[in-house]
Amino acid sequence: MAETSAAVGERLSELLPAPDTAERRVIEAMRYSALAGGKRLRPFLLTRSAALFHVSPRAALTVAAALEMIHTYSLVHDDLPAMDDDDLRRGRPTCHRQFDEATAILAGDGLLTRAFEVVADPASHTDPSVRCELVRELAEAAGARGMVGGQMIDLMVERGIGAQPQDVAAITRMHQLKTGRLILFACIAGPIMGKASPKMRASLHAYGRDLGLAFQIADDVLDETGSAQDLGKTPGKDAAHGKTTFVTLLGLDGARDRARLLSDQAVGHLEVFGPEADMLRAVARYVVERDR
């Protein structure tokens, strides 16, 4: 993962050059957030799933960088005063604290739109039909039927807008949209790029679905138990905002057990790939055992 993170960072830097023109400030803000490091879990999943189908590493890295742009944009906007109003991200000031709110909004917008420009470019894949499918899948994962929709539900629950249920099923659906859909895209982009069989694509789809939810449950646990130094962001936000989480619904032990069960299920979906998928099996264990 460290090697992938470094490679994605280099590719992001290439794809986000800072010009010597009047708009330089917004690109500096985009680079500030996109090059801040982090686990780079989504790019790692994408490049490893692509490797199963012998996709060009450079092409996979390009799409992985675009996916990381979208993930980063979501964090920039999530940290804004109108959303979570946070001061710390990846161990340093959030984008709107380092620059200003307007610049942070534009930086998020710039990262989102640049991501689709990158995926649509022939550098991501030589086959136009594959690029079109990647664009469609990524747009669905990031939009109102995916991450944006999940974020809306989260805000409605937090602010008491409408009669939003707060049981396990409702929280599961919210997080499948808010967090899980980009993780799911990371897992199916590889078979899309590799023109894999429906069976193999379905296996990675199921893996990504269970892994994404396991990751979010583990995040809920860490928000309850982690420190700012370990997490690189402000802990305890969910409790402070009165949010219903898997921890509040299941308790710490119950949440940990649910995350491990989902991790085991994710691993089971990889049987068709044999030892070539061992790295994906390892990351399924990692997401529930990590401490940051």
TrEMBL record:
This protein's UniProt keywords: Isoprene biosynthesis, Magnesium, Metal-binding, Transferase
GO cellular component, as recorded: cytoplasm
Cofactor field: Mg(2+)
PROSITE patterns (alphabetical): POLYPRENYL_SYNTHASE_1 (PS00723), POLYPRENYL_SYNTHASE_2 (PS00444)
An MF annotation (GO) of this entry: prenyltransferase activity
Signal peptide: none
Biological process, per Gene Ontology: terpenoid biosynthetic process
Protein name: Polyprenyl synthetase family protein
